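Continuing the series of single-chain predictions for the mutant panel. This is the parent chain; the variants come on the following pages.
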Amino acid sequence: MNWLILFLAGLFEVVWAVGLKYTEGFTKLTPSLVTLAAMGASFYLLSVALRTLPLGTAYAVWVGIGALGTAIAGIMLFHEAVTPLKLVSLLLVIAGIVGLKLSNGA
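Parent structure:
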């Protein structure tokens, strides 16, 4: 269950990272509130997952999910460039997340 909680924490990290783009330096109220709420949810869920998951693994997976999701969101929402090197790098992040998960069992 804590792996699911950690995954959700990573998804909220994507929301707040993307939200930062829409806040325009925290000058827009609604995007700013959504971003701050997503930050709070992400950190809270990470703290819950850390009750039983190893710190180094959980943090690395959380950051990896956030980085991967944010890169994909940048491509889809902001039409950022997609290059072969970027795709390979994203696949390596996925491999790292899977490897960390497997190294800690179910």
